[in-house]
Amino acid sequence: MCSVCGTSENLWICLICGNVGCGRYKGGHAIEHWKETEHCYSLELETQKIVEEYNDLLTSQLDKQRNYYESLLSEVKEENEKEISAATSKAVSMMKLQKLQAKLDKCLEEKSFLDDINANLVKNQEMWKERVRKVQEREQAALKLKDEKIEKLEAELRDLIAHIECQNAVAAAPGSISSDIQGGTILPGPSTPSSSSSPVRPTKDRKRN
């Protein structure tokens, strides 16, 4: 009978120490003995079947551990898939970012190139403006000088015409008047052109008989 409850059914005897206890279908005292002593070998008295409780427990624990690790592996696999998906998305985002950065760098480079061209054009424009201004100043100075020369030549021409007209008038005068005029001084007329002869002012009084 069971050493704990006294039942005579479903009895097990420990092959290590001889303890008798009931099985799981009664009070389960044989299992309690195994848990307390860790004696692994027992004999079922009714069937004379030796059962290695340790192997049963180990198998059960291995099943539990297998299920546990399979669950962990499933979680790890799921996490890895999430990380791979996140890494893929991140890689795609990084590629897009790199492409955008490359486009931005190219735009900045083109802008810098255009700024240099614009600066050179402005500089050349100022240079050409200065050249045109100097050319205009030279042309204005040349025109002014030319006008002054023309005015001087016109004045000389008027004096020459007046002198020629005076000489012609003297030559056409009667003899006595011509003699008196030849003894005087010819004064130039006004600066305006005139068809009349310039006045003649004698330098000495004419002698009377």
Task: Name a few traits of the molecule.
zinc ion binding, rod-shaped, Znf_RING/FYVE/PHD, alpha+beta, 9% strand, four-stranded antiparallel β-sheet, disordered C terminus, two-stranded antiparallel ribbon, metal-binding, 3 helices, zinc, zinc-finger, 66% helix, Herpes Virus-1, 6 strands, 209 residues
Give structural notes.
Strands 2-1-3-4 form a 4-stranded antiparallel β-sheet. A two-stranded antiparallel sheet has the order 5-6. The protein is α+β, with helices and mostly antiparallel strands. It has 3 helices and 6 strands. One of its GO terms (cellular component) is cytoplasm. This is UBP-type domain-containing protein. It holds the Pfam family zf-UBP.
Strand order of the largest sheet: 2-1-3-4
Q: How many helical elements?
A: 3
**How confident is the prediction overall: mean pLDDT?**
78
Could you please say which CATH topology of the domain at 1-47 applies here? Answer: Herpes Virus-1
* Weakly predicted, low-confidence segments: 191-209
Coiled coil: 62-170
Domain UBP-type: 1-80
InterPro entries: Znf_RING/FYVE/PHD (IPR013083), Znf_UBP (IPR001607)
GO molecular function: ubiquitin protein ligase activity; zinc ion binding
